[in-house]
Fold each of these.
Amino acid sequence: MIEQLKLDDYILLKEFMKTIGDDAFRSGHFKRFKKHEFLAHKGNSIYRCFFILDGELSVYNEFDNGKIYNIEQIRAGMIVGEMEIVAKIDVFSATVVANTDVLVYSFTKESYHEWMNQSSEFIAQANIRLASMLCQISTTHGENIVYSSREVLARLLIRMYGTQPKATLILNDTRKDLSEKTGLSIRSINRVIRWFLDQNYLEISKGKILLNPKYIERLKSI
């Protein structure tokens, strides 16, 4: 299937191939996942890993109390299953689902171990990927520890509005999108948005959040 892909369109794939070599690369294969399809389930044994070439995915954990906690979003360049393999854990520590149609390069965990033993460049790139993931998780969850849910969502909306003056910004993000970006549950997102509406911190039109300079100044005061 590799000849069916335009490698020039996947710079990350070309860089990945350099770390393991052409012969080793042929041991894997390409696979597509449709939107809402699962790549991994928490607690399931790891047999294959997935190098993300295109698309967006959500990582979350569901606990015995029925609550679902979003951990992070992952995009092209990350490897599903890498963190567990490096930590010598044989099962997925979280569930991974496709937010969009996703294209991956799939390979066995045995191949991953071989590449670690044979390529120092592969190890270096793995360190960068894992460090990037850790920084992203630390940023999101650090905010959730220090700030209230209102403050977390307010800070996100301010960042999304940006620094350039504009009349009105209509956010296309769904409540699920906001949940994934903040690490808050969808229930918490809905509760905070209702409070923001009551306090005149934003407005809603056809289900979408509208922001303007007046609302941004009010959000900054939270």
Note: The mean pLDDT is 84.
Amino acid sequence: MAEKEKTVKLRGVKFVNSTISTAKAEFVAGMHTLPAAIQQAIGDNATFLDHSIYAVKRTNNASSLELFQDSDTKQEGVCNLNGAKLNAGEYFMLTGIRLMAANYSTETVGAEYFQSIRDLGIDIANGELEIKANSKPVTSKLSCRVFATSYEGGAKALDGYYRLESPKLIAAQVPITATLRLNPTVSHGDYMLRIELMGVITARA
């Protein structure tokens, strides 16, 4: 028997829910956390687009690293946030996180070939990653072993990807942090890391 779909209407925007939740459906479910005026503005005047927020940083043997920083500026292949904040009027539903790594070289940052931390065989898998927005936790301190995944052939999955069981809504113009912590008593080597926050973002119609 075919799965029965349920249509959800939100101030003129129509969504279809099924038993496999989409990022858009997660966005609708989180709308109640926003002030009423913002809910109305999003529902009446916005469309919803697949989106990823990303940044590339060098580890340089550090045991603690901020993957988004106030000094960040948009540069293709390196970072797509200014000042680690969404633009005014943008709202982002975070549904998954991807963490990839590459060996450091003297080439231009952003030109690296990134792969799973599992395939690279580095101890970053033993670390912890914590995401915050406006200094409030978006995730707990996740073990980086959840990102130590790789798939071959026709597998319909992304290397280094972890889907959140509890998606979170990130508002415009609040600082976003992604803190990586490693064992401070050992040497970690010099690598490039690429973090991607994946989900759905609002766009003005």
Note: The first helix runs from residue 23 to 30.
